[in-house]
Design goal:
There is one protein chain. The protein is an alpha/beta fold. The protein has two domains: 23-93 and 290-501, Zn peptidases (Aminopeptidase), CATH 3.40.630; 98-186 and 199-286, Glucose Oxidase, domain 1. Helix content is 35%, strand content 21%. The chain contains 15 helices and 18 strands. It has an eight-stranded mixed sheet with strand order 1-10-12-11-15-18-16-17. Helix 1 (2-24) crosses helix 12 (417-424) and helix 10 (326-345) packs across helix 15. 47% of the residues are buried.
Length: 521
C-alpha cells in the first residue's frame, strides 16, 4: 500500500507541476485576433504556392527548378523587409538533374501510350531506343544465383522491374482523402517514426538493388522500366535513393510506369506475346556547384537581452521530379513563409529572433537540416554540442501535406505538453487542440531533436497525401487545400509568437546520448 500511495503522490505532483507551468503562460489574445483577421482578409498563400509550384516546376535539389523557386523566395522575403536573407551552404551535396527530353510508348504487339516518368538522375539513352521487354522481380535481381543463371536473357532487353506477379488488388472503393477523427487524435500513435535498425535495413536494401542494376548493365540490358503496382488511377511514385553523388555509379536509363500499364504488360508477357517499348531519356546533370544550400531569413528580436535567442521554423523546399512538389513540400514552405510575413506585417515585434529556414536535400535523407544543425548547434554522431545550441527555444516543422493542423507531436517532452495545450486552446474552433507525447519522424525536426533542441512536427489531416500525392506525379497545385493552409499559417504564426514572447526558453527533455553514424538515409 505504501508503494501505491507513493506512486499516486508522485503522479499528482507531476500533474500539479505541469498545471502550474501551463497557468504561468500568457496568451496574447489581441495578437492572435490580429493574426487571424489578417490571414482571412489578405492571405499571400495562393500566390506563394503558385510561384513555388506552377512557376518553378519540380525542385530536385540543385536543379534549375530548385533555384527558380529559391530565387523567388529570396526576392519576396527581401521585399517583405526580412533580415539576413541568404542561400547558406551546408556542405557537399552533389549533382542537380533535370529531364530535357522524354518519351516512351509500347510498339509491339500494338502502338499504345504509357503513363511514365524518368527516374531522377537517370542515365541517358543517347537517342531513342527500341527493344523487347523482359520481366524481372526485385527479389530475383538481388539474388546472385538467380541472376547468374538467367543473365543471358537480359542482353538487348528493356527490363520490366516489378515487386510481384500479383495482379492489381487495391480496394478502389476506399476514398482518397480523409480527415482525422476525434478517436484518432485521442489515440495518436508514432507517425513515420523508424528505428535505427529499420533505417539500416532500408539502406541495405538500396545497396542490394543498386548492385543488381549494375549487374544488369554488365549483362547487356539497355534500360530499366519500373512498375511497382502499389498505386492506382494512373498515379505513380517517382523517386530514387541515390544518384546525386558526384562519384555514383552510372546505371542504366530508368523510367517508372503506372500500375495499370505494368499489369497490362505483365498479362501480355504471361500469355506468351512479345512486348516492345520505344524509350528516349535525355536529361542534364548540373555539377558546376555541388554544394547544398538552405534558404534563410530572419525577423530580428526586439528585446536587448533575448534577441540573440532563436525560434526557428522550417520546411523542405526540395521535391521529386514527376510533378511540382505541391503537397511535398511547397505546402509547408508557404505556410512558414506566411507565418513570418504575418508577424512582420502586423508589427507584432517578438522579443526573440524568428528564423525561417527552407531546406534542401530532405528527400535524400534530411541532408540540409542535419548538416545545418551539425554546423551550428552540435554533432549528433558524437554528442558534442556547440554554445549556440543553448540559445534555441524551439524548432517547428511542417511536412505532412496540405491538410490543416490538428495539433502537435510533443516528441516525449512531458514538460512542454501542458504549455502547448494551453497555447492551442484558442484554436478549438479551427480543430487544432491535440498535443500528443508520441513522436513524428522522417523529416527535418529530427535533426534538431537529436542534439537536444525542442523540435516539433505538427499533426495534420492526411487528406490524400499518402495515398495519392506523396512523391507522385499527382503532387500538383490542384491538390493543395488553400483554406487548410491559411488555417495552418494562423496557428504557426500564433504559436511562434508565443514562444518568441515567453520570458524563458521552452523546457527541454533529457538528451538521449546514443551515438550513431549518419548515412544520409
Amino acid at each position: 500500500m505504501k508503494i501505491v500511495r507513493l506512486t499516486v503522490t508522485l503522479l499528482l505532483l507531476v500533474i500539479c507541476i505541469n498545471l502550474s507551468r501551463a497557468q504561468q503562460e500568457n496568451i496574447d489574445t489581441t495578437a492572435i485576433h490580429k493574426i487571424r483577421d489578417a490571414e482571412v482578409k489578405s492571405s499571400n498563400i495562393p500566390v506563394l504556392a503558385f510561384h513555388l509550384t506552377d512557376a518553378a516546376g519540380s525542385r530536385l535539389t540543385n536543379s534549375p527548378g530548385f533555384y527558380r523557386a529559391g530565387n523567388y523566395i529570396v526576392a519576396v522575403m527581401k521585399s517583405w523587409g526580412l533580415s539576413h536573407v541568404v542561400y547558406e551552404p551546408w556542405g557537399e551535396y552533389g549533382r542537380g538533374w533535370e529531364p530535357e527530353v522524354f518519351s516512351i510508348s509500347m510498339q509491339v504487339p500494338y502502338q499504345a501510350s504509357v503513363i511514365a516518368y524518368p527516374e531522377p538522375w537517370s542515365a541517358n539513352t543517347n537517342g531513342a531506343i527500341r527493344a523487347p521487354l523482359y520481366q524481372l522481380l526485385y527479389t530475383d535481381m538481388v539474388d546472385p544465383a538467380y541472376f547468374e543463371k538467367h543473365k543471358k536473357d537480359f542482353s538487348g532487353k528493356i527490363i520490366l522491374l516489378t515487386n510481384s506477379n500479383v495482379q492489381h488488388d487495391t480496394d478502389d472503393f476506399q476514398p482518397f482523402a480523409r480527415r482525422l477523427t476525434d478517436s484518432e487524435l485521442t489515440h495518436m500513435q508514432d507517425y513515420f517514426y523508424f528505428s535505427r535498425k529499420q533505417l539500416e535495413d532500408l539502406h541495405q536494401q538500396d545497396v542490394q538493388v543498386n548492385e543488381g542494376k549494375l549487374r544488369l548493365k554488365a549483362a547487356g540490358a539497355l534500360a530499366v522500366v519500373i512498375a511497382d503496382g502499389n498505386n492506382r488511377d494512373g498515379t505513380l511514385v517517382v523517386e530514387a535513393p541515390d544518384g546525386y553523388e558526384k562519384d555514383h555509379s552510372v546505371l542504366l536509363p530508368e523510367a517508372a510506369i503506372s500500375a495499370e500499364d505494368g499489369f497490362k504488360i505483365k498479362r501480355l508477357l504471361a500469355s506468351g506475346q512479345k512486348v516492345e517499348f520505344a524509350l528516349n531519356i535525355q536529361g542534364k546533370f548540373y555539377a558546376d556547384d555541388t554544394k547544398g544550400y538552405n534558404l534563410i531569413a530572419e525577423l530580428p528580436g526586439t528585446d536587448p537581452k533575448l534577441k540573440d535567442e532563436l525560434v526557428i521554423i522550417g520546411a523542405h523546399l526540395d521535391s521529386w521530379n514527376a510533378a511540382t512538389g505541391a503537397t511535398d513540400n511547397a505546402a509547408g514552405c508557404v505556410v512558414m513563409m506566411e507565418a513570418i510575413r504575418l508577424l512582420d506585417s502586423l508589427h507584432l515585434a517578438p522579443k526573440r529572433t524568428i528564423r525561417i529556414i527552407l531546406w534542401s536535400g530532405e528527400e535524400e535523407g534530411m541532408l540540409g537540416s542535419y548538416n545545418y544543425v551539425k554546423n551550428h548547434f552540435g554533432n549528433a554522431e558524437t554528442g558534442i554540442l556547440k554554445p549556440e545550441q543553448t540559445k534555441i527555444s524551439a524548432y517547428f516543422n511542417l511536412d505532412d501535406g496540405t491538410g490543416k493542423i490538428r495539433g502537435i507531436f510533443a516528441q516525449g517532452n512531458t514538460a512542454i505538453q501542458p504549455i502547448f495545450k494551453y497555447w492551442l486552446a484558442p484554436f478549438k474552433d479551427l480543430g487544432a487542440t491535440t498535443v500528443t507525447l508520441s513522436n513524428s519522424g522522417s523529416t527535418d525536426h529530427e535533426s534538431f531533436d537529436w542534439v537536444g533542441i525542442p523540435a516539433f512536427q505538427f499533426i495534420q489531416d492526411p487528406l490524400d497525401y499518402i495515398i495519392k500525392t506523396h512523391h507522385s506525379n499527382m503532387d500538383t497545385y490542384d491538390y493543395l487545400r488553400i483554406e487548410d493552409l491559411k488555417q495552418s499559417a494562423i496557428i504557426v504564426a500564433s504559436l511562434i509568437y508565443q514562444v518568441g514572447m515567453r520570458t524563458e526558453l521552452l523546457p527541454r527533455k533529457k538528451m538521449i546520448k546514443e551515438k550513431f553514424h549518419w548515412e544520409g538515409m
